[in-house]
Amino acid sequence: MIGEALWEILKEHHGYSDEDLMRRVAKIDLKDGKLDGKVAKTAPVQCPRCSRILNKRHALCIYCGEQIVHPPFAR
Ligand SMILES: [Zn+2]
């Protein structure tokens, strides 16, 4: 519901159309080169300090304690 409400606000206040939204959705879908209705999987997370590969759910590196900054839309 929140996504739908935000979209209504954007349409009413900024003049975007449903076609604008669908073009953007297709662009995001195509990030992995396939228009398949699925978002691209993000690459594994690598610690910026010790370079070890980490599970995406960790906020801190389990090996060295470095804070891991995840992209806001990472999956
Ligand atoms: Zn680390």
Low-confidence residue ranges: none
Order of strands in the sheet with most strands? 1-2
- Kindly, what is the distance between the CA atoms of the first and last residues, rounded to a whole number of angstroms? 20 Å
State the total count of DSSP E strands: 2
Q: Give the structural class.
A: mainly alpha
| Apparent shape | elongated
Ions, cofactors and other ligands present here are:
zinc ion
The Cα radius of gyration reads 17 Å
Quaternary state reads single chain
The SSE order reads HHEE
Helix content: 25-40%
Number of discrete domains: 2
Average of the residue pLDDT scores? 89
Strand content: 5-15%
Tally of alpha and pi helices: 2
Largest β sheet strand count, sense and barrel closure? 2 strands, antiparallel
Briefly summarize what is shown:
The chain has 75 residues and is mainly alpha-helical.
